[in-house]
UniProtKB/TrEMBL annotation:
Protein name: Pirin family protein
Coiled coil stretches, renumbered: none
Cofactor annotation remark: Binds 1 Fe cation per subunit.
Family: Belongs to the pirin family.
Organism of provenance: Sphingobacterium hungaricum
Length: 237
């Protein structure tokens, strides 16, 4: 029988540094909750808002897959590998930190905030050569479907990571429902609502709510209003 753990949006950790407003789904930085350390290989899901002209200075990472998904505004990036770019909604960015990198990320605008998700996935290989990639996401292809955006498979249309994980975007019309079949029945799924509301097996999820799903090989998502969501299938061990 499927196991569901509901994470209401208001139970996330809150960080407010003035220039940065962030909501943490899992323990991160000054937010610590022993019951919210990770969901399998999914280690971090931060919902960030960065004020105009502000950002994170250069800082190090290693042995982590770091995925950034802009939701509004422009997110500028620079790293020790020589990469520099600005991504907006419709882009996805990944870094395999591997043996170690330094990077900075900041709001590309002097007048508007930037909102983005930063997601960390624990890799299945350590000390790899660091790498950077970004891709264009065609959100229109997520209309009443599951649009693949992250995978371990090296395809042109998605970013790949060092982990047997599968991320999808969904953009469902109100009343539409669709079954999701896991790539691996031993995996789990973390379903995160970006806007609107959906229902899974009687559990309604609203804006920024999440549901951790395990012990099943399939489940059905029904949109109870027009809804956008991010579905993350990851190994649990």
């Amino acid at each position: 029988m499927a196991t569901y753990v509901y994470h209401e949006a208001g139970t996330r950790g809150i960080v407010n540094h003035g220039w940065l407003h962030s909501k943490h789904s899992f323990s991160f930085g000054s937010y610590y909750n022993p019951e919210r350390m990770n969901f399998g290989a999914l280690r971090v899901l931060n919902d960030d808002q960065v004020a105009a002209g502000a950002g994170f200075g250069k800082h190090p990472h290693d042995n982590m897959e770091i995925i950034s998904i802009p939701l509004s505004g422009g997110l500028a990036h620079q790293d020790s590998m020589g990469n520099g770019s600005t991504i907006e909604k419709g882009n996805i960015q990944v870094m395999s930190a591997g043996t170690g990198i330094q990077h900075a990320e900041f709001n590309a605008s002097q007048t508007e905030e930037v909102r983005f998700l930063q997601i960390w996935v624990i890799p299945n290989q350590r000390n790899v050569t660091p790498r950077y990639d970004e891709k264009r996401i065609f959100w229109s292809k997520a209309k009443n479907d599951f649009l693949p955006i992250v995978s371990s498979e090296r395809k042109d249309s998605i970013v790949w990571i060092y982990q047997d994980a599968y991320f999808y975007l969904g953009d469902f019309d109100a009343g539409f429902e669709k079954e999701y079949k896991l790539q691996n029945p031993e995996h789990g799924v973390y379903l995160f609502v970006l806007s609107g509301s959906v229902e899974v097996d009687g559990q309604v999820l609203n804006n920024r709510d999440a549901l951790a799903i395990s012990d099943t090989d399939a489940f059905t998502i029904k949109a109870t209003s027009n809804a956008e969501f991010l579905l993350m299938e990851v190994p649990l061990n």
